[in-house]
Amino acid sequence: MDISNLKTLLSLDNRDMGIVIGLYLSRFNKQALDAFEFSGFRQAYNVLGLSLGIKPKSINNYRDEFDPYFPNGRQGWHNREIKPQSKVIMELAKDLTFDQITFIIKAHLSHKDVDLEDLQIPISSYQNKHEFSANRLITGKAAEEYFVQIYPTIDIFTGFDVSDMTNHGCGYDFKLSKGMSRYYVEVKGMNERNGNILMTEKEHTTANELLNRYCLFVVRDFRNTPFHDYYLDPLHCGQIDFKKQERQVIQTSYTGIFI
């Protein structure tokens, strides 16, 4: 395994990571879908494409471009010459295992820094690590990117500037500003058309304080064709029934006594 190739793959931008994902879906097929708990390729295109901020169709095209090179039962673009950058990516990744490419993709989507030594460890060793086991976080990222792309077309948000607050722990994902007007938007993603969403205590408290300035933006149906609904003052709008859930967590610790 060429260490320089690994370093290059770990430093790719979103567009080139999209090419890696296309190769991954082509080469590993159903195994790749299972690693992300996807029910099919359409969901993979939607979630992975939007997570990277590129069109889901682009992920589809990248997979089709690589299909003639792997025994997956599809012909793909068998009558087209592979693009130069796709050829470069295929050469960089040719000696990587399924676990290693899975690790690289999940690390990129989770914005996690990794050590090259991590790539010597089976991906199963990371299933208990929150950032690699919770694929729902990737769906959440896809929903956030969907919002960033679509919000200027929504009437009540026309002309607003957006600030990304996802890493600030303030109870919402985005702040929209226009003059003295503000909206505070929490984004949720759902793989199905219908189902449940979860609000943290911080999000719930913030929504209760901000009322009509707080917007719950829900992206639905990543399995097929994503669409959205939004709710101003979601706790009191009469369209969502929130029920409080409490869970007791038992944490074990050990005290070391010097003897």
Plain-language structure description:
The structure is a single chain. 40% of the residues lie in helices and 12% in strands. The chain has 259 residues and is α+β, with helices and mostly antiparallel strands. Helix 2 packs across helix 5 and helix 2 crosses helix 6. The longest helix has 15 residues. It starts with a helix and ends in a 27-residue tail after the last strand.
Annotate the secondary structure layout.
Elements: H1 3-10, H2 14-28, H3 30-35, H4 41-52, H5 56-66, H6 84-93, H7 98-110, H8 130-133, H9 136-150, E1 161-164, E2 174-178, E3 181-189, H10 201-210, E4 214-220, E5 227-232
Parallel strand pairs: 3-4
Antiparallel strand pairs: 1-2, 2-3, 4-5
Properties at a glance:
single chain; 259 residues; alpha+beta; 5-stranded mixed beta sheet; 12% strand; globular
Short overview:
With 259 residues, the protein is an alpha+beta fold.
